[in-house]
Every structure is written in C-alpha cells, then in structure tokens.
C-alpha cells in the first residue's frame, strides 16, 4: 500500500482519463493537473462513474452492467506520467512507454468479457492491480474499511518508521530460518522411513546416471532416426529434384543461367530494369547455391543400419527412464523435470546417508539462526514501539486539524513470546492495532468498533497526510471523504486535502462547497437533457463560473446573488488560508 522513502521522491501522476459508454457517460475525456482536483456535479451526473472508470483501468473486477444501455462495450483508458521506479516496473511487465507516459486501457463487453492492456500490451487485471499499488490509492467509505485490518495497520506503521534496514534483515533471517526448519522437518520424516526412501532415491539417481540423458537429446535422437529410416525416400526425392533442376541440357537451372546472361547484357540501359535484373541474379545465385547444397547432402546421404539400431536403443532407454520416473503426459516436460528431480535426489541422499549426525548438524545451525532471528525481532519490536508513539501523536494532531478535537488514535504494538519459534511470522512477532476514540477520556477501541464511516474516512485522510511525504504513491483519490461533515469540519477536510496535494496529486469527488473551494483544478460533471454525459458535460470551471458552482453547492441555487456572494467570501477565505499555509 505505502512504501517508505525518507527523501522527497519523484511521483507518478494521472494526466488524462478517457471514458466511452460507461453508465450514464456516453463519452468524456478528462485532463488532470497536479495538486488538488475536485469533481462536483448534481446527483446522478456521473461523478462516481469517473471513480468506476479508474477502478477498471487499475485492475478492479469488471461487470457487464457497467456498459451503457444499448452499447456493445465500454472502453476506459488512463494516461499516467511515470517516475523512474514505475518506468522500470512497467517495462519489466512488458508495457510500452512513450515520453515517460504509459496508457492503461480496459474494455468490457455487454456479455461481460473483459480485456486489459498495459502500454499497448494485453495483460491481466491482477498484474495491473499489483502495479497500481504504487501508482494510485483510492479511498471511499467501503475501501477505508481495509484500515481496520491488522495487516494493513502493520504496513502503515512500517511505512512511517525509520527502520527499513531492520525490516530487511529480519525478512532475510526469517526466510533462512524457515528454509532450514523445513529441511529439518523433511529430514526427520525421511529418517523415519530411511531404508525405503534411500532405496527409492538410489534407484532414481542410479538409473538416471546410467542413462545419462542430455538436454534436448530425445528430439535430436528421434530426428536422426527419422532421417536414417527414410534414406531411400530422401535419396530418390533429392535425385529427382536435382535431375529436374540441373542434370539435363534444357534443365531449369540451365534456362535460368541463360536468361541471366541475356539480362546482364541489358544492365545499365534502364534503371527500372536494373532493379529487376539484380533481383533475378540474386535468385539465380540462391538456386545455384541450393543446388550445390543438395548435391553435397546427397553425397553424404547413406544408410547406416548399425547407427539406426543404436539410436533406436538409445531412444528406448530414454523413454523407459521417463516411463519409470517421469510425471505427466508431456514427454519433453517429464524429462526436463527429471534433471531437477535427480539433482534433488542426490542432495537428499547425502542428508539421509549422514543420518542422525546430519540432523544434529542442521539442528545446531537452526539454533544459531534462531538466536540471530530473536535479536533482530527484538530490535524490530523496539523500533515499532517508538514509531507507534510518534505515529499516534502525529495522527491525533491531524484529527484535531480535521475538526475532531476530542478524538485520539493510539497505535498499539503487542508482541508474542520470543521463545516459541512458531510465533514468528513474515512480519515479526508483533500484532499491530489502531485504537480510536472520538470522545475525550473515552475508551480506546479497535477502529471498526469505535469509528463511524465518516470518522473512518477522516482517520484515513489523517494517516495519508502524515505518510504522504515518504510515500511513493503518486495519486490519491477520495470519494465520500467528506461524508457526515459540514461547516468548519468540511473546511478543515478541504485544507488537509490541499496539504496532502502539496506532495502528491489528489483527486476528490465531493458535494461540499467547503471542500471544493480548496481546489487547484475544479471540474464539473453535468447531464444533458437526455440524461447522458458527453464530452461537453465535463468542464473545468474558473472565475465566475466556479463561483456559481460553489454557490450551487452551498444553496442549490447557482443564480442566487446572495449565494454567489457567500461563495465569493468562501473562496477568498480559502485563498487567504492557502497563502498562510504555504507561507
């Protein structure tokens, strides 16, 4: 979700979104700038379809119901400017990049068939979804519920903390410990049936060594068998072909060479003909070369019954090995897998032949690695506890700024016993819990029990503002982040969104004037008389037109003089606050 980078990072951004036949949107092309962009419009005008379009190009599940009534398919595409890290990731995924930009495209038919492409190359929704984690972060009330998961809370804490080297060391040590522990477990099982297992492994290793197949040998042997088994047919066919080409006075080759001489005399008389002459001479040369090659082939072609029998025997040996030890119906794949299995069998035999002494050796090594793992896990826990206090304070301060002065968020780190090996996981010994209360002196409870939908959205916003400077995510999209708020609280939500937009591109779908007034770019989505949204129904508003839209959001009456005056006053207040914030 969020990845740490302590210095200011270059970030990717969404520059353009194109929508065709999605819901009420007939066609729309939206350009996005940097900073804070807000989308407003009347209910049902298609604002949420913009979010749906973004979800689709980022790999979300598709649905035939998204396709506009009467149309065969919907098509959505997004153009993203990429930073260097994302350029590398997209190129590794096979996508084509032009001028540092990539286009993500998604189509869905009315029958529900979906196709997604990355930089012009067809790919899978899951692959795009993986890339999108560092590209766009989408927040709606439904998606904010993810914040209640302990694994996500652990990711957020680790993204905030300055202990990436400890995390890396722990990951490496844990992976080494798990591999060794599995090896010990496997060896114990194998030792319990040692004689049977050794006989089985020795059979595979011995038979494989006896046959000693080579990579690709089966195809080579079969091709040679086919050749030797067809010597008579090959000889007859090649002789007949050579006879037709060159053995008679009026042969094809003789005629071609004669024609070549005539044409050579005409060279230089007509440039157009010269090109044709060059082509003809080249073809005659190639036919002569092919003829010579066939004569050499014929000279070497001879029956070899002894070699034929030898190859048949070799083929049978390889096939017998595959039949005895191979898996599946694909002979080539089965043989390929046998190379790995034989090598693994050799390694397992060494372990088994060492018996109990090998187990003791591995156990001693495991204890040594476990000791190192315990030390690193302890350091990781200590680092998390320090970071948890800092993150708790920072988020609580942000919540106060978001008009939640009595709210408190506490990041709790609970650790399992370090003595028990099975307590260790890929993330350490720690369980992370975000506890919250919206009341002064209130009892701290898990987020999903203590926070309403609107509060959860603001908690998520507070977290993103705290983490944004170190996050590689380039674009944040918020829908319903202002749900359940109004007045001064709504102004503060807008302010924090503007604060977040100083480090990343932020796109907000809102119905509140107090939030929309903070925008660097204000887009309005409207419906035409027939209830659809077309290119002309998505416009950027500035100046008096923006003031009218703010007035509509405030009172529902964009032509009201008093509403427009109120809107102008709000925009002036926000402009002053923005200047103070930047200063």
UniProtKB/TrEMBL annotation:
Pfam families: SMC_N (PF02463). Gene3D superfamilies: P-loop containing nucleotide triphosphate hydrolases (3.40.50.300). Keywords: ATP-binding, DNA damage, DNA repair, Nucleotide-binding. One of its GO terms (cellular component) is bacterial nucleoid. InterPro entries: DNA_recomb/repair_RecN, P-loop_NTPase, RecF/RecN/SMC_N. One of its GO terms (molecular function) is ATP binding. Residues 18-532 form the RecF/RecN/SMC N-terminal domain. One of its GO terms (biological process) is DNA recombination. The keyword Nucleotide-binding applies. Belongs to the RecN family. May be involved in recombinational repair of damaged DNA. This is DNA repair protein RecN. It comes from freshwater metagenome. The lineage of its organism: unclassified sequences, metagenomes, ecological metagenomes.
């Amino acid at each position: 979700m969020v990845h740490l980078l302590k210095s200011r990072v270059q970030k990717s951004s969404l520059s353009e979104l194109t929508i065709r036949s999605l819901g009420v949107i007939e066609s729309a092309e939206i350009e996005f700038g940097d900073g804070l962009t807000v989308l407003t419009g009347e209910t049902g005008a298609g604002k949420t379809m913009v979010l749906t379009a973004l979800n689709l190009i980022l790999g979300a599940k598709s649905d035939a119901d998204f396709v506009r009534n009467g149309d065969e398919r919907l098509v959505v595409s997004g153009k993203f400017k990429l930073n260097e890290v994302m350029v590398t990731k997209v190129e590794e995924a096979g996508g084509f990049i032009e001028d540092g930009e990539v286009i993500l495209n998604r189509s869905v038919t009315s029958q529900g068939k979906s196709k997604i492409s990355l930089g012009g190359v067809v790919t899978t929704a899951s692959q795009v979804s993986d890339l999108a984690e560092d590209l766009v972060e989408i927040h709606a009330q439904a998606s904010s519920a993810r914040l209640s998961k302990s694994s996500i809370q652990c990711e957020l804490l680790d993204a905030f903390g300055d202990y990436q080297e400890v995390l890396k060391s722990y990951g490496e040590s844990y992976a080494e410990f798990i591999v060794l522990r599995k090896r010990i477990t496997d060896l114990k099982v194998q030792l319990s049936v040692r004689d049977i297992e050794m006989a089985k492994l020795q059979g595979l290793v011995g038979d494989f060594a006896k046959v000693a197949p080579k990579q690709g040998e089966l195809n080579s042997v079969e091709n040679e068998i086919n050749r030797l088994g067809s010597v008579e047919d090959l000889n007859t066919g090649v002789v007949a072909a050579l006879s037709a080409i060159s053995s008679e006075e009026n042969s094809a080759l003789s005629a071609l060479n004669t024609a070549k001489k005539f044409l050579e005399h005409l060279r230089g008389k007509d440039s157009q003909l010269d090109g044709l002459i060059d082509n003809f001479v080249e073809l005659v040369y190639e036919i002569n070369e092919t003829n010579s090659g066939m004569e050499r082939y014929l000279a070497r072609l001879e029956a070899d019954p002894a070699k034929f029998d030898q190859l048949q025997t070799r083929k049978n040996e390889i096939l017998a090995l595959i039949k005895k030890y191979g898996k599946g119906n694909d002979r080539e794949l089965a043989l390929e897998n046998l190379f790995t299995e034989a090598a693994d069998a050799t390694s397992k035999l060494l372990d088994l032949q060492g018996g109990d002494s090998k187990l003791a050796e591995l156990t001693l090594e495991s204890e040594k690695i476990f000791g190192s793992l315990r030390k690193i896990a302890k350091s990781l826990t200590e680092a998390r506890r320090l970071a948890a206090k800092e993150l708790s304070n920072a988020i609580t301060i942000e919540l106060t700024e978001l008009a939640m002065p009595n709210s408190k968020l506490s990041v709790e780190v609970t650790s399992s016993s370090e003595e028990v090996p099975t307590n260790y996981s890929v993330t350490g010994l720690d369980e992370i819990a975000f506890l919250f209360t919206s009341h002064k002196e209130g009892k701290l409870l898990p987020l999903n029990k203590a926070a309403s939908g609107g509060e959860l959205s603001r908690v998520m916003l507070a977290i993103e503002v705290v983490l944004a400077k170190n996050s590689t995510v380039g674009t944040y999209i918020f829908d319903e982040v202002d749900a359940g708020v109004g007045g001064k609280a709504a102004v503060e939500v807008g302010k924090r969104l503007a604060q977040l937009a100083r480090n990343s591109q932020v796109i907000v779908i809102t119905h509140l004037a107090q939030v929309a007034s903070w925008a660097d770019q204000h887009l309005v989505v409207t419906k035409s008389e027939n209830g659809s949204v077309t290119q002309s129904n998505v416009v950027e508003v500035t100046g008096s037109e923006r003031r009218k839209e703010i007035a509509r959001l405030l009172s529902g009456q964009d032509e009201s003089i008093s509403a427009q005056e109120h809107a102008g006053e709000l925009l002036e207040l926000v402009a002053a606050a923005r200047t103070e914030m930047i200063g």
